[in-house]
Amino acid sequence: MITVSDLRKVYQQGSKDVVALDGVSLEVPTGKIHGIVGHSGAGKSTLVRCLTLLDQPTSGTVAVNGKELTNVSAAELRNARRRIGMVFQHANLFDSRTTEQNVAYPLELVGTPKDQIASKVAELLELVGLSQFAKAYPSQLSGGQRQRVGIARALTTDPDILLCDEPTSALDPKTTDEILDLVKELRNRLNITVLIITHEMHVVKQVCDSVSLLAGGKIVETGEIETVVTNASGRLASTLLPLPGDAPRAEGSGPILDLLYTGQQATEPVISSVARQFNTDVNVLAGSVEQLGEQQYAHLRLQLNADADVDAIVNHLTSNGIAVTVKGAK
């Protein structure tokens, strides 16, 4: 488990204080995949460095599996860092080393016996699907294969946590999906906790169990995917399930309803049931239905007739587990 409490990081720029992190608190349970999203300058890179104590926080605490890291000795910190595997945007491989030699490097640094290194490297290359590329050099590998080498290298110390900093932003869409599938498979097989720092909402949609939005050094929204997606007033809901631009609205029609729903409801004929039950026309202005992780979600924007019983329709929808926001009439 990762627990961050009231984390604050202030840098000095001349005579000015620059606040990079401002009271960040976060908890990621063991075996979960959590996404940290935000635009450039939100504080994502600073958060990564503070989580690994490469940067000492100005205040606040970072704990991994109950072990608080901000006030430990240098030796204890080195041992704690071995429990955190790091995967970067670029794999940062040694060009002069083969795949197996790149993966072996962290084990060599701590004096692991050669026979143990060989066994561990072979196991990890099989795990990430690169056994046949053990003797290849980075220049002979694709971008996705190089990233797999980076992931294998991050797993050499049998970490409890895999910390991924923009792991797919340099990859094409197909390779991105393959790497994300691998990360999810590793989580399932190894029961490791994964924290993914990203600006790509596709990453969150495909693999994350929960997500936090970082802006201006603060977490402004956080929660499990189902919770944030069905929060009609939240910023993450509109980003994860965006609607196309405003469609033309029927002249003289009634209020606009935004519907957010998930699971079984996402496959139900919601519009036709409202039209039949309340004997009213329903105009669909925009909509999206997407698969997020293992669950299906829907976001619809509807316009009702001017004489429709809005309160009754809203009550009907909410009683069926659908989040509704009334936008008002045009």
TrEMBL record:
Keyword terms: Amino-acid transport, ATP-binding, Cell membrane, Membrane, Nucleotide-binding, Translocase, Transport
Organism: Glutamicibacter ectropisis
A cellular-component GO term for this protein: plasma membrane
Statement: the UniProt record of this protein carries the keyword Lyase: no
Function: Part of the ABC transporter FtsEX involved in cellular division. Has ATPase activity.
Similarity field: Belongs to the ABC transporter superfamily.
Upper lineage: Bacteria, Bacillati, Actinomycetota, Actinomycetes, Micrococcales
Entry protein name: ATP-binding cassette domain-containing protein
Subunit annotation: Homodimer. Forms a membrane-associated complex with FtsX.
